[in-house]
Design a protein that fits this description.
A 6-stranded antiparallel β-sheet has the order 1-2-3-4-6-5. The protein has about 120 residues and is α+β, with helices and mostly antiparallel strands. The chain is about 35% helix and about 25% strand. Helix 1 (about 5-15) packs across helix 3 (about 95-110).
């Protein structure tokens, strides 16, 4: 594993710790699914030459506009899924991994069934 793999390994660790999450390539990028069906996070490295190392994440309603307006250097509207309210989060800037874990958990909660959200909440105590 090279130094460039560290962000992916950290994202993978965060995502795979959530109940019933799987990873596989989708459109050539590491993508995380709930119960192998519903996508909640995608890891993109220079997607179509955009120069970004980023996550595309499902997000609660209203989040996209708020974060992109407040911090356009770190957050963006990703192509394809941005129309559904997803957010792009840059990993090639100063990264707060606790924040990334929170964003990832929010994304998970957007697509996971209630029984898995209850399991997550129980694990948090």
């Amino acid at each position: 594993m090279g130094a460039g793999d560290e962000p992916l390994e950290r994202v993978r660790s965060i995502c795979l710790a959530l109940p019933e999450v799987t990873e596989r390539l989708s459109h050539g990028s590491p993508t995380f699914f709930v119960r192998s069906k519903k996508t909640f996070v995608m890891y993109l490295d220079d997607h179509h030459g955009d120069g970004r190392l980023a996550l595309w994440c499902a997000a609660p309603p209203g989040t996209q506009g708020m974060v992109v307006e407040e911090e356009p250097d770190r957050f963006f509207v990703p192509p394809y899924v941005g129309g559904r309210g997803w957010i792009g989060v840059r990993l090639d800037r100063c990264v707060d991994w606790d924040e990334i874990a929170g964003i990832t958990e929010d994304a998970y909660r957007m697509v996971a069934p209630k029984v898995l959200i209850a399991e997550l909440d129980a694990a948090h105590g």
